[in-house]
Amino acid sequence: MNLRRLFLPLVVLCPWLATVPPAGAHRLDEYLQAARLSIDIEHVDLEIDLTAGAALASNIFAWIDTNRDGEISGAEGEAYARQMLRSVVLKVDGYPVPVTLAGASFPQFRDMSLGVGSIRLRATAKVPSAGAGRHQVSFSNTHRPESSVYLVNALVPENRRIQLGDPRRDRAQHSLTLDYTVIAQAPSLLDRIFALVGLAMIGWLLWRFGYGLTQAVAHRQRSSRLFVN
Amino acid sequence: MRMSRSAWTALSLTFAAAAFLPALLLVFPVAADSQQRVGSPPTAASANGTVTMKVVEAANAFLATLSAAERTKGTFGFNSTQRTGWSNLPTGIFQRNGLRFGDMTPRQRQAALALVAAALSHEGYQKVTDIMNGDEVLKNAGGGQTGGRQGGRGPGGGIRFGLDEYYMALLGTPSTTAPWMIQFGGHHLAINVTVVGPNSVMTPSLPAAQPAKYTLKGQTIRPLGRENDKGFALINALNAGQQKRAILDYQVTDLVLGPGADGKVIQPEGIRASELDAGQQALLLDVVHEWVGILNDEAAAAKMAEIKSNLPKTYFAWSGATKNGGLAYYRIQGPTVIIEYAPQQGDLDHIHTIYRDPTNDYGAKLVTP
Questions:
Q1: Which of B310, B325, B286 is nearest to B358 (CA)?
Q2: Digits of tens for pLDDT over chain A (229 positions)?
Q3: Rounded to whole angstroms, how far apart are CA atoms B67 and A225?
Q4: Spatial distance between the Cα atoms of B74 and B80, rounded to a whole number of angstroms
Q5: Are A211 and B12 inside 8 Å of each other by CB?
Q6: Residue of B317, B326, B355 lying closest to B234 (CA atoms)
Q7: CB B206 within 8 A of CB B353
């Protein structure tokens, strides 16, 4: 290995300082709310990751740590998660559907104070009119809009029967509306065998009917000829 | 009019067939076109495994510089959780495992860098070192605008970054046949190279930069400058109609599929590459190559061929200003590639990017479970 190639790029730099400079690279004064929708035939799952900027962490931690003991208890976490989900409106085919909290995890205050620890919420909603055909899902998040930035995306469905249309969002990504189509379920092998047997029987009957009809008409034509003659 | 018996028979058969055909279509429906799904693309392989041999030699040379204790600290099982234990965050917020550059001897550092150089292309290695040097510059300049104080007390007091805070970890045993992995990273850098026989895979990886531009020994360095400039060149090569389809009507303030988003595939958006002319497609591939080409030339060439073969199903999406120098996010997403370029919090001097292959992160396609 050519040592010049290895070390030339790394040569250098000003003397490494002994002082204590501020660190960089972390979210500061924004509350990032990133949501992902996973659409299935009978339910829509939500993943919502909330990352508080370092400058907001104390405030946000205080919203959650209501008894001010410096820790987020299970009950406090759940209460905040439910409060946050009340700011979420999920509609399927134009009708609001209840969003049920499925899980929540909270970072340590230290991580939040650095602008990196994320609150992770998982929720789910049932699709009331599940079935083949066209549907529409819309998601809206208005939680803490005064200090938040938003991301919302639909995941490519695991279920191949679901095809997504073009998404529509508002500029700040508070909301997303998405048309999707559920393709009719393909029949199972057994269904296909039964259908084939049935079709074969129908075909045989039709053939017999056609043959019988042919015979009858031919007979009538013969009779008609006899009568004319 | 008279009809013969055979004509009647033919008519009855036609009648039966006409009844059958729609029913058959119901029973055997035409497979739904799934534009968001992927077939089985070729894998990236070096022509005869010579690159792998060089990388294995470099890995073994690095291991030979380590004491038994250091080996224990710097090596992990290939299937260990360490595989997904990477981040762009600095030490103190995210604790990496492996061997810390600041704790290595000069000989060990040299061997570690030689391993990185063997696995990557010349340009890729340069990019990596530009990012590392940039981090040192950031540290020496007093850090960015956000976060706590390095080494200080209170929030962020334990944050450390700069050249000493890059880590090397090896997963599995370096081999020309069995799978193993090189994990190298620190603040604003995560390089994950999975080696399986003659194949090398560099997804997921996260090259980032802060500052995005700095001066070193009289030279202006922009670690991700080509990613920026080529992105703007591409969006400006599109005509008005194409731009309308490519430009998202909403703002994107961060990576959508950053660290921790393994295995997630979002709905592709923007303009399809099939709607671009040959020149525009070449520009798109040139942008993609800025990430793919970090890996060694042989593996990168194979990966580029794979991406090119999927070009009609590849999307380019843009959000933000179209004049170079403005703030803009872009994403390239195809069946076997996802690339995001995202300035952070409106700061042009602070760029995060991600490079993923939804079908082959960590060499998933190459590794037998």
A1: B310
A2: 455 555 555 544 333 322 223 334 456 688 999 999 999 999 999 999 998 887 888 889 999 999 999 889 999 999 999 999 999 999 999 999 999 999 999 988 877 777 667 899 999 999 988 789 999 999 999 999 988 999 999 999 999 999 999 999 999 999 999 999 999 977 777 777 877 888 888 888 888 877 777 777 777 776 666 554 4
A3: 111
A4: 13
A5: yes
A6: B317
A7: yes
3-state helix, strand, coil in chain B (%, to 5): 40, 20, 40
The burial of A125, by beta-carbon neighbours within 10 Å (0-12 exposed, 13-18 middle, 19 or more buried), is given as buried
Rounded CA gap, A33 and A29, in Å?
Answer: 13
Backbone angles phi, psi at B14, to 5 degrees: -60, -40
Q: Does residue B219 belong to the interface with chain A, where contact is any CB pair within 8 Å?
A: no
| Burial grade of A175 (CB within 10 A; 0-12, 13-18, 19 or more) | middle
Nearest residue, CB atoms, B269 vs list A3, A110, A167: A167
Q: Give B31's DSSP letter.
A: P
Whether the CB of B88 is below 8 Å from some CB of chain A: the reply is yes
CA distance B364 to B355: 15
Question: Please, what is the end-to-end C-alpha distance for chain B in angstroms?
Answer: 73
* Cβ proximity of B165 and B102 under 8 Å: yes
Q: How far is B294 from chain A (nearest CA, A)?
A: 15
Are residues B251 and A163, on separate chains, in Cβ contact within 8 Å? no
Judging contacts by C-beta atoms under 8 Å, the chain A residues touching residue B89 are 25-26, 116
Residues constituting chain A:
229
